Amino acid sequence: MTSSESGRFRRVGEQDRPRLVFSIDGQPAEGCKGDTLLVAMLTQIRHLRSSEFGDGDRAGFCLMGACQDCWVWTDTGERLRACTTPLAAGMCIATKAPEQAWPTLA
Amino acid sequence: MADPRIVPDPRIVIVGAGPAGVRAAETLVAAGVRPIVIDEGGRDGGQIYRRQPEGFRRSYASLYGSEAGRAEDLHRSFEALRDRIDYRPETLAWGIWEKQLHLLQGSRTSEVDFDALIIASGATDRLMPVRGWNRAGVYSLGAAQLALKSQASAIGSRVVFMGSGPLLYLVAAQYSKAGAKVAAVLDTSSFWLRVKALPRLIARPDVLLKGLALTWKLRRARTEIETGITPVEIEGQPETGVETIRFRTNKGQERTVACDAVALGYHLRPEAQLADLARCEFRFDVQTRQFFPVKDTDGRSSVAGIYLAGDGALTLGADAAEASGHLAALAVLTDLGRQVATRDVGRLRRRLRAFERFRRGIADAFPWPASAAAAFSEDTVVCRCENITAGELRAAVTTGSVELNHAKAFSRVGMGRCQGRYCGHAAAEVIAASAGVSIETVGRIRGQPPVKPFVIGAESDAKEGA
Q1: Which residues contact A27 (CB under 8 A, 6 or more apart)?
Q2: Which stretches does DSSP call E strand in A25-84?
Q3: Interior CA angle at B264 toward B276 and B58, to 5°?
Q4: Going from the N-terminus, what domains does chain B have, and what CATH number goes with each?
Q5: Is some CB atom of chain A closer than 8 A to the CB atom of B457?
Q6: What is the pLDDT of residue A2?
Q7: What's the gap in Å between the CA of B137 and the closest CA on chain A?
Q8: ipTM value
Q9: Residue of B nearest to A34 (CA)
Q10: Distance between A59 CA and the closest CA of chain B, angstroms
Q11: Rounded Cα–Cα distance for residues B115 and A59 (Å)
Q12: Which residue, A42, B180, B338, B464, shows the most beta carbons closer than 10 Å to its own?
């Protein structure tokens, strides 16, 4: 099985665009120029993050910036809304919130 | 002597660059005004005429089908305006305080003062939860369409379309045409209701015919279409997401369809948070069991200087949004003491009346399935942001929460990251059924600033127009 068959989304056109290399949780991944981060990730893997309320993995919901279900993180801890963020070459994306995102309350 | 009402250089702000916002801007520019156009999108067109990214090559005809001409015309109109408006893409209007709009662009906040504000904020999908709708692979119907239209992707390999309304058939037909596998179209409304609604639907014969053609195309592609169904559950695993959908047919038999994605939706609901923050009055619509901001025919809200246009005020669709954007801008100009052509106003008002009649017909033909909420099992997730069940919400009702915002405070339903956009209407139904009160008295989730979450610590710019 190629990587494109293991994802959730299926490309049905516009497949001759330049390829962009990025990474998901340290694993190399490939998307196309013009992809949103959400589409680039979900053509490779089957989720974007896990629900912090314990009901399993999430893969986005509204795709128009309204539900906020598609939050992912960069390796520097920046939070991105995957459905409205264009894919850029070299992005290092994490599907889990980095620990340092939580401030110390002490 | 100059008319004292005439404001010499009015500052007019439009929120939204979809069909309503673009036509409003065009009308103002034609009157010699340079409006500020704030839009959250990176490009104009809104959601319905969302543009594909640069480098994509699909034609207007393949992207927008029968609406290709309208989409292209709207995009061209906006291009012609670019030098004559203050256009601010990728900018979120997140709050209103009196005559000041609060903005966020990237990580920078700023404020802009206005004499008149036209809110053309568009709509999002109206959702009725079903057990398992929080699983990965369940998307809103609008999401399924956007994946295809703006990203040339299908949300899965075997997609079930479930819900009700014309968009259900439109998106399923677009998937089928694009070569994506449509596993089934499951409509909660019965075929008979559509026949009964014909006298109202005939208000827009062209749209009615397009709708019939869609159904015919789906049937010709041997797509399974079930009407009058009752959703039971979207089944699957927490780790892998959707695997099957379970429903009852109109004859009461339980069935399952294998799928890896579900597109779910029951019409649209206005994104009316900004109108709410501007303290506009809302009215209850008995037929569709939801609240809309009050506006007059031309788009004046209950608050002076605040105008409402497009689906963000009343979900009449894209064609009506163009007309109402045009009309709202004419109302702004009139109220600022400018002369406007009364012939245009009369023509646009007549068009909007036909659109409203059609909307009522659609609501009769494809009703909101209110009774589903009363039937939710205790463990059905109502709020998918925070995994809160119908049982937890009903427990809040038992301890005295019979108003939606009160129940939100005690159950957290509607308090999550979507701010009640997707659970609010269903939560109101759960409360109404559980408490035995009318849905109108349960109320609506109040808008809160910021209307979308952003990272605290965003830098502040100096205020403009001070």
Answers
A1: none
A2: 27-32, 49-50, 57-58, 71-74, 79-81
A3: 95
A4: 12-124+269-362 (3.50.50.60), 129-266 (3.50.50.60), 371-442 (1.10.10.1100)
A5: no
A6: 39
A7: 6
A8: 0.94
A9: B53
A10: 5
A11: 42
A12: A42
